[in-house]
Write a structure and sequence with these properties.
Length: about 525
């Protein structure tokens, strides 16, 4: 039943437990199977009979083994672990998790690449997903972030266009640098995140060696009804380590599941990866006057203004026993925010609050939250009933409506509630004000923080990908690089020229795309 408190995610159930050697093979109904070698036929050389239920069940189940892969972040690996609070923050939040230093809580992490499908290589240049689910006593808290502190776009209505530009070309079925740089060049708010991706951090050595970020502005609220805007940071204790494009290319050929294996094997060896958990905190009133719009996902909050406050750590110490049950069916959702946690007016975050649960209902089914890996460790008492694959007791004969006179659950009516959010203005489709249109200052600072070696590698990384796109796409994008820093634009141009002049271009030099969109929007060969 859903309110069984004794359950722990990943606890072996009968289906998970290894069977003793020689245990009787049965069909899905528990009937003993006489032969798993020979189908039932009419005569020694005759055709198969329809009454061979074992065979039919095997074929039919096999045809339905796949659920749709995630539309983004399809390839990911993960592990269970322990989230530990090192500093209590009751002054910021009523969340039970953060009331006492030393509190520990079971959790799940899933790391992923974004644009490729489930069979893609782990070492491609791409952001990495960094999704956490903490099974707190107040319910599940999910923080679904990336390994970069900013994102490409800042309005959810542009997310689908952005992702289409990263996925496969409609004619060729291949990923296309032209589509990517065309979109990025037309949307200058993307340049900050793009610089991260074409810098060294665009290919982490493996999931253990990268930081994670909530990226969005979230909030926390306390018992006095005060709200604080918060950015979440997860710093790897293994040290940030990256692969060069040459190393990544080689590994992709030898072991496309390299990051999967690295995480799994480290945990098996008892080398549990750890991350430090910190927050930046902005009192609610400051959000109105701070010189950067704190709800613009393409910008960071400088640490000089909002220093990091360390409040916890987590380690991953248990591999899943079954990848499909515990990682493929894991359903992370930014809307999982127990009491004391909250959202913010960040438009992208608002979009995500709807999108993930919707995706899970499609991908896994309406009862996804009751699956062991997604089930809260706290009691779950809803009036949701029935639906496909209701595999638990469906609340038995408990009341199915509220209010009722028969003892069903009632809303807590807590004295302490999330403080109201003040909203004013007319409903309209607002553009970003002029003051938010500085796309280049923060990427410029990021570029100038890079060592000369990293700058040189970044020039090459851009050049290899941008160099094969049509001239108008290239020129438009180089114009943005010039504005980030003239040395960046210059460095990338020089690299492109060198590659074009190379009489024997290396296999890594991607300099032409045969299929692309012409400027007029038609496909050209
Ligand atoms: C996965 C939508 C922005 C991080 C997904 C999925 C969807 C989605 C539909 C697949 C969910 C599933 O099938 O399980 C969106 C939309 C966005 C957005 C509509 C913007 C409006 C972001 C941003 C981040 C992010 C800004 C990071 C800061 C992730 C991660 C996953 C994911 C890490 C994989 C979660 C897992 O491991 O299962 N996103 N996304 N997304 N997204 Fe987003």
């Amino acid at each position: 039943m859903s309110d069984d408190k004794s359950f722990k995610p990943s606890e072996p159930t009968d289906m998970q437990a290894p069977k003793p050697a020689g245990a009787a093979l049965t069909n899905a109904q528990g009937d003993a199977v006489a032969s798993n070698e020979n189908s039932l036929t009419a005569g020694a050389r005759g055709p198969v009979l329809l009454q061979d239920h074992h065979l039919l069940e095997r074929m039919a189940h096999f045809n339905r083994e796949r659920v749709p892969e995630r539309v983004v972040h399809a390839k990911g690996s993960g592990a269970f672990g322990t989230f530990r609070v090192t500093r209590a923050i009751p002054e910021l939040t009523v969340a039970k998790l953060f009331q006492q230093a030393g509190t520990e809580c079971r959790m799940l992490a899933r790391f992923s690449t974004v644009a490729g499908e489930k069979g893609y290589a782990d070492t491609v240049r791409d952001p990495r997903g960094f999704a956490l689910k903490v099974y707190t006593e107040d319910g599940n808290w999910d923080l679904v972030g990336n390994n970069t502190p900013v994102f490409f776009v800042r309005d959810p209505v542009k997310f689908q266009d952005f992702i289409h530009s990263q996925k496969r070309h409609p004619a060729t079925g291949r990923r296309s640098a032209t589509m990517m740089f065309d979109f990025w060049g037309l949307r200058p708010e993307t340049v900050h995140q793009t610089l991260y991706i074409f810098g060294d951090r665009g290919i982490p050595r493996s999931y253990r060696f990268m930081n994670g970020y909530g990226s969005h502005t979230y909030s926390l609220w306390n018992a006095q009804g005060q709200r604080f805007y918060v950015k979440w940071h997860f710093h790897t204790q293994q040290g940030v380590q990256n692969l060069t494009e040459e190393e990544a290319t080689e590994i992709a050929g030898i072991n496309p599941d390299y990051a999967f294996q690295d995480l799994h094997d480290a945990i098996e060896r008892g080398e549990y990866p750890k991350w430090r958990v910190s927050i930046q905190v902005m009192p609610e009133a400051e959000a109105e006057t701070y010189h950067i719009n704190p709800f613009d996902l393409t910008k960071v909050w400088p640490h000089a203004d909002y220093p990091l406050m360390e409040i916890g750590e987590f380690e991953l110490n248990e591999n899943p026993r079954n990848y499909f049950a515990e990682i493929e069916q894991a359903a992370f959702e930014p809307s999982n925010m127990p009491r004391g946690f909250g959202a913010s007016p960040d438009k992208m975050l608002q979009g995500r609050l709807m999108s993930y649960a919707d995706a899970h209902r499609y991908r896994i089914g309406i009862n996804y939250a009751a699956l062991p890996v997604n089930r809260a460790a706290s009691p779950v008492n809803t009036y949701n009933r029935d639906g496909q694959t209701r595999f638990d007791g469906n609340y038995g004969d408990a009341p199915v409506y509220e209010p009722n006179s028969f003892g069903g659950p009632v809303a807590s009516g807590d004295a302490v509630q999330e403080p109201p959010i003040r909203i004013d203005g007319n409903a309209d489709r607002y553009g970003w004000p002029q003051t938010d249109e500085d796309y280049y200052a923060q990427p410029g600072a990021l570029y100038r923080l890079m060592s000369p070696d990293e700058q040189a590698r970044t020039h090459g990384n851009f050049a290899r990908n941008l160099g094969g796109t049509p001239a108008f796409v290239q020129e438009r994008y180089l114009g943005h690089l010039d504005k980030i820093d003239p040395a960046l634009g210059r460095g990338v141009r020089e690299q492109i020229e060198q590659m074009k002049a190379d009489p024997a271009p290396s296999i890594r030099t991607i300099l032409s795309e045969t299929h692309t969109y012409a400027a007029g929007g038609r496909l050209s060969a």
